[in-house]
Specification:
The complex is a heterodimer. Chain A is of the alpha/beta class. Chain A is 23% helix and 21% strand. Chain A has helices at residues 19-30, 68-73, 130-139, 149-163, 188-200, 245-255, 306-315, 399-404, 408-414, 461-480, 545-564, and strands at 3-15, 35-38, 101-102, 165-166, 180-181, 207-208, 259-262, 265-273, 278-286, 292-302, 339-340, 343-349, 355-358, 365-367, 386-394, 420-429, 437-445, 451-456, 484-490, 528-530. The longest helix of chain A is centred in the last third of the chain and has 20 residues, at 461-480. Classes of the chains: A alpha/beta, B mainly alpha.
Chain lengths: 568, 214
Amino acid sequence: MNINNNITEYDAIVVGTGISGGWAAKELTEKGLKTLVLERGRDVKHIDDYPTMNKDPWDFPHGDVITQETKERQSKQSRTGYTTRESTKHFFVDDIDHPYNETQQFDWCRGYHVGGRSLTWGRQSYRRGEVDFEANAKEGIAVDWPIRYKEIEPWYSYVERHVGISGESLNLPQLPDSVFLKPMELSCVEDHLKGSIAEKYDDRLLTIGRVAHITEGTKPGAGRISCQYRNRCSRGCPFGGYFSSNSSTLPMAEATGNMTMRANSVVHEVLYNPETKRATGVRVIDAHTKESIEFKAKVIFLCASAVASTAILMQSKSAAFPNGMGNASGELGHNIMDHHFQVGARADVEGYEDQYYKGRRPNGVFIPRFRNLGGKTNQKDFLRGYGYQGGGGRGSWTENVKEMAYGSEFKEAILNPGGWTIGLNGFGEVLPYHDNKMTLDYDKLDQWGLPTVTFDANLGENEWNMRKDMQEQAMEMLDNAGFKNVKGYDNNYHLGLGIHEMGTARMGRDPKTSVLNGNNQLHEVPNVFVTDGAAMTSAGNVNPSLTYMALTARAVDFAVKELKKMNL
Amino acid sequence: MQRRTALKNIGLSFGAITLSSTVVSLFESCQTSQAHWTPEFFTSEQAQLVSKIVDVMLPKTQTPGAKELNISQFMDGFMAHVVSPEDREFAQIAIPVVSKLFLEASGKAKVTEISNEDVDVQLNRFLRADKATQEARQQALGTWSEAISNVEASSIPEEGVAHEMINSLRSLAVYAYKNNEIIGETVLAYAPVPGEQKGCISLEEATGGRAWSL
């Protein structure tokens, strides 16, 4: 292996370019730090590298579905059933080139390229409430969060003003309002369900999803304008209608003149000086040449995603850290969480035949958490709670059309909108279990000679009990709305499928039981920060990216102040 | 082993194509010449039969029919490259059965001799069968599938297998048709860049009656 001795020094290094890495890059460079941004995958330039952004289904040889050939290369990435399509498969890894191991099935869906999953994310954006920060301490679960809502609140506002979050203000304590752009509209049957819930329940409500789309005005970045309602988001958006690193944070970091971006750079170790007790830089393998290179910096932000950042720390072994950097607590790699879902109900809706909609809304409806919020909302069978995401629209061909069987009348009927259907899919909190873990397998190496990740995690009794309630309540709400053929479901869910993996380097107050402190700083190495999903002490029940953005901006602010005070 | 899985899954994976809604969209560029093409999955005789079947299912009216849009060619490509090995295996068993039943009933010697009228009679027999007949076919299919998974000898329930295959061909044909470029851009309501979102408006205001193509 060649060692490049032309070591280059920076003020800061950011590892990863997804939601968290993009924010770290923007904040560090805007505060004047010369910053090296490292990405293990290829470069993806906004617009230039979105090859499928304008394609219609008939522009693909077999339509926008994956072939068996693709499925063989992306067998794990395809487990969601929606992530890998002809139009999006290039933003997900090849499972043969990038293997991992499963003691129990774990769906690890990811993309190795500049922008990471910020290009393909679901864009649902919710603040966590105080109830989420207090829950562990109140219930004696795992460890307490070292921060409370009031500490993150200004940072939520800060990132929201930049990102643009569309949604409706509700003033709910468990789901604080964001700084909102105007909400998207409900379909007729969703509005019907909203009315029925308002009439029949006093503990819950239905609202439009809160989503990182511009619905009025513009936002900074690479010329971001309002969503055009094409719903082709995960191919990359030429309008910058939704937030991604590529359209927003990275071009802004670039514009400062302080960013150096290096793609195809597989970071596998954080370097450490035991005398100064500080990290000194990172070690990288060039993905193509396999050359080993070291880069030095005063401060390091690991934003490679929960699993990857954790794997880097695990590989950063030295006399000071025989079990991986910052792992004195032994918690590194443990407590892995996701959001469990694929349980709920769906129904047919009669009527509304003369009603339709316009625009392909890249968003659904949301029913915020209504369980275990005190008083009669408290449940005896499970802790925490869940929300529903879903939606109602018109299908294509229905049973009626089927009875026409075939022929000219049948053909005419299939060209018209089908019947209305509606569905509610629960998204529930997964508790942090110490036994749910990822480890490294040094016997199975990847093409760069690096250990592969092994997952060993499953849901616990709390989640299984919660799922029963998730299905029952969804069915009951659809029934109460007068919808027909209400069918509950609990599909086969495995951890990871929510693509919200988190918790493997948790924040906490005590270095003996946690990896990071309240500023996302390694307890043991103050100039190393982890601000992606690894930091999460509990999962909450809402989509987590907005929280990663806020935590990242907050941690950069802290890090730069500490640097100026010469504390790092 | 593979065959067992195939038979256990009868209707399931094909059904998924039918039911997984607008997400599934399939079509090959219609610039391909429709006169001559070499099938990848079907035999050339099967391709002719499928072509005749889908043209009766989706005939030319004021809007284009399956034949002029080369729907069967798309279906062949889809069978060859997209469907699961299990579904492919089922089709390899089932299409010859369809062919056999069509020939027997029409008294023709070759697929090339089968007329649209012959196809119509057969589609009527399968797709418009009364409920009891349909259920009996479904049941025979289930018994057969179970026998095969227990590695017992059992003769193929031809009507049931043919029914299942014709249903699957119809699902595939409908989605191929609805996602064809000509249908998608000129017959259905086509809005590649809607530019605005309205949640609940009249069908008349939205599209004037047709379904959105995207």
